[in-house]
Amino acid sequence: MRDFIKAAGEADKYEQMKELSAIFKERSRSKENRGSFPHRNILDLKASGYTSLTVPADRGGKGISLLEMIRLQEKLAEGDGSTALAIGWHMGITKNLGEKRKWDDELFSFLCREILDGKLINSAATERQTGSPTRGGRPQTTAVLKGGNWVISGRKTFTTMAPALDYFIVSAFIPSEDKTGNFLVPREAEGLSIEETWDSVSMRGTGSHDLVLDEVSIDKTFLAEILGQDKKANGWLLHIPAVYLGIAQAAQDYAAGFAKSYSPNSIQGTISDIPSVQQKIGEIELELMRAREFLYAAADRWDRAAENERESMQPLLGAVKLAVTNAALTVADLAIRVVGARSLSEQNPLQQYYLDIRAGLHNPPMDDMTISLLARKALSRLD
Q1: Is the omega angle on the peptide bond into residue 241 within 30 degrees of 0, that is, cis?
Q2: CA–CA distance from 101 to each of 9, 41, 104, 183, 222 (Å)?
Q3: Which pLDDT score is estimated for 1?
Q4: Taking every annotated instance into account, which residue ranges of this chain make up the domain Acyl-CoA oxidase/dehydrogenase middle (predicted)?
């Protein structure tokens, strides 16, 4: 399966992702795989070459556009939301690093070579004491320079894809400089361990366990960047609403298929002929259309924008995440209403779709922060 995506055009990559998505859906529905980390799915994605598609072209990758990335992520999420969200962080962070080029060139080139070789990365920034890093809290994890090495100690929560990661981009406070930095930490570093704490009923398969760093020593060149206070616009975070849109599409497909096949003996034909059911399915279609157009338009605008325009897009990007994720929740709720009480069976995928989409409310940016940003944007027009 190795490299079957590498030489493909955009349409071919989409069709290939569609095939993998169907395989992942079958696996997610089997009792033995339900709720467990999708090791086989991740291996298939690595073997396909998918995980290197966002490596920049000047570093040996394909450097695919944001729009193409979110379309592929959306299709993947139709098969398995946990797999899509987990790999989406790797895909998006790789793309973001390639766009912004804030790392030392030698370190970035090293990481790109590792990704081209099948290695996986994700950020480890959240902590229990500070909450979401988007709220601005200073990390309790510390980094101290001793000789030629940084020594890092602390604990990170919500480290998505922890069972499969090869590198962790760890945020840590540097007391000697009164600054916070991002450090590239290899999985094999002594003192690094994973504590399996992830017991969420939503997106259980992401394996978002705790990362424990007990005096982990890394070379001083693995300080990737010093973090500033300014919050930059991040187009790559659109991978998040893309995943929830994909899950919502799966919910619609299930509900519509059920409506077309279910024929209780109290009616002639199937329940798809009942006006109230058609009303719900039509409302679902409207929600999906609006959400998809909004998401794709924003991604396309990002791809076409110059750097200065991108920096003004933060309100739009937040609005897209809020609108698409909440639309996906509406879709899942309407799908459950179409199917009825049997949708709440543990064997029925709709209840898991609904629970998985609920997780989107807790992915960045949070709804309240987006609404506040939009309010400031509206008010500033009167200044």
Answers
A1: no
A2: 26, 30, 8, 15, 15
A3: 37
A4: 124-216
pLDDT tens digits for 93-143? Answer: 999 999 999 999 999 999 999 999 999 999 999 999 886 776 667 999 999
Considering the domain architecture, whether residues 369 and 298 belong to the same structural domain is answered as yes
Beta-sheet pairing, 179-186 with 167-174? antiparallel
Question: Structurally, how many domains does the chain consist of?
Answer: 3
The verdict on 294 and 348 lying in the same domain is yes
Its pTM surpasses 0.90 = yes
Q: Residue 22 corresponds to which amino acid?
A: A
Cα three-residue angle 182-186-190, rounded to 5 degrees = 110
The alpha carbon torsion through 35, 40, 45, 49 (nearest 10 deg) reads 160
> How confident is the model at residue 5, as a pLDDT?
53
Tokens of residue 316, six digits: 């739009």
Q: Which residue has the tokens 């897209």?
A: 320
Between CA 300 and CA 304 the distance in angstroms is 6
Residue 77's alpha-carbon distances to 17, 85, 94, 128, 303, in angstroms, are 10, 8, 19, 28, 22
Determine the straight-line distance between the first and last CA of the chain, rounded to whole angstroms: 58
Q: DSSP code of 103?
A: S
CA atoms within 13 A on the CB side of 280: 23
* Domain, as residue range, for 302: 235-380
**CB distance 310 to 367 below 8 Å:** no
Determine how β-strand 223-227 pairs with β-strand 142-146. unpaired
Mutual angle of helices 239-261 and 314-339, in 10-degree steps? 20
